[in-house]
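Predict the holo structure. Ligand: nicotinamide-adenine-dinucleotide.
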Amino acid sequence: MSTAPFNAMPLNMDRRDFLGKLGCMSLGASAVAGLGGRVASAGASSAEKVWAPVSDRKVRVGIVGYGVCQFGAAFGFQDHPNVEIVAVSDLIAERRNGLMEACRCDKSYESLEKLVQDPKIEAVFVATDAPNHAKHCMEALNHGKHVMTAVPAVFGSIEQAEQLVETVQKTGLKYMMAETSCYRADNCAMRQIYRAGGFGKLVYSEGEYFHFSPTPIPSFNGWRVGMPPLWYPTHSTAYYVGVTGGRLTSVSCGGFDAGLAANRPGANRYDNPYSDEIALFHTSEGGVSRMLMCKGVQGVIVETGRVYGQRGWMEGTDYHGLLKDLPDLSRPAIPRGMPAGGHGGSHGPLANEFVTAILEDREPLVNVYEALAMTVPGIVAHQSALKDGETLAVPQYDRG
Ligand SMILES: NC(=O)c1ccc[n+]([C@@H]2O[C@H](COP(=O)([O-])OP(=O)(O)OC[C@H]3O[C@@H](n4cnc5c(N)ncnc54)[C@H](O)[C@@H]3O)[C@@H](O)[C@H]2O)c1
């Protein structure tokens, strides 16, 4: 398993800066050697395939949010040949200027609320703080803009999930959640093999987001301080929902207090005692999934998952199973000159998927239903943890 030891802080970086960078770093999926059987490799990156445009039109994009992770500029919209960056925004002037420079854009607005009033903008990338994602996405949708959001889709609120799905349905606009695990090489290959029948039904799957954080990673208004771990579940749940398109239907979750200062009584706004949460879900195809988010395990920082089916299993990019004629397992191509970007080279493919879905007038891979299917189970898992592991049903938001 690939891990990043916490103490490996570069000498020329102060602790706060280091924590910030660590929070946003591209975390590797583990690649463990296979034990035999039919092995398929899914190593080709998006940059190695040849991208072909589906249109010569430029989508007019606005980008909001240049926080600790500088995510607004990290997905390469500014390098996509089918994109014109019309304007950018961050509430903080210095960040706003940084985003303008990074996106080579000479127009900015003081807030998302002002940016969405620009009639020229047709799509917005929301890279703001997690508690405001749903509100900001609905604001953009209600102003007639397509939206791509950083994860999670909603933050601890089932009510927000309902409002979001209603807004997407009412406006008929494109909504996509930029879940990075969905475009990691292993997850993409698992999805192709699942669709081709190489796993049959999944008996069992696992998704893991370990992020050792003895001190909270910096964040806008401190939203990360003491956050319930599985309110940030999507890097894990992508290893069931993002592979199969299936659903997590009920959950029993255990919480653990590793003794971090942020989880002491009264130390966080969420009244959350847990640094670590490990959830066991039933799935819509009759299997079981174990999904976790852990901040208290010494030194481990990794985003990864595994799937085990009736006809094969997979960890990393090696397939072991019965399927003989394997589909193309490599990731979709991205335009020449557009970086694949962080989180396992997932950023470029995510931005390209959003732009292409607009140009082709089709649903993006992680539409609102898939986004909520990855996000809401974690909210219910935290409720279960607070009730000592009581089994709870997970609300579903599929198209009627
Ligand atoms: N692998 C991943 O997918 C991954 C990794 C890191 C971060 N993220 C997500 O990316 C998002 C951004 O992360 P971050 O650490 O940079 O966040 P942050 O909290 O450091 O910064 C958020 C920024 O949004 C700006 N903002 C808030 N409201 C605004 C408004 N109304 N108008 C304009 N700007 C506004 C703030 O000024 C701030 O600079 C987060 O939601 C996080 O969950 C995802």
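Residues 24, 64-69, 71, 89-92, 95, 111-113, 127-130, 132, 150-151, 180, 219-220, 343 surround nicotinamide-adenine-dinucleotide (CB under 6 Å). The chain has two domains: 15-45+181-321+368-393, 59-180.
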